[in-house]
Amino acid sequence: MSSLLNRAALKRYLLDRAQVIRPHHRLSRVSEETLEWLENNLRNQASELIRRHPAKGSTIRP
Question: pTM here?
Answer without folding.
Answer: 0.85
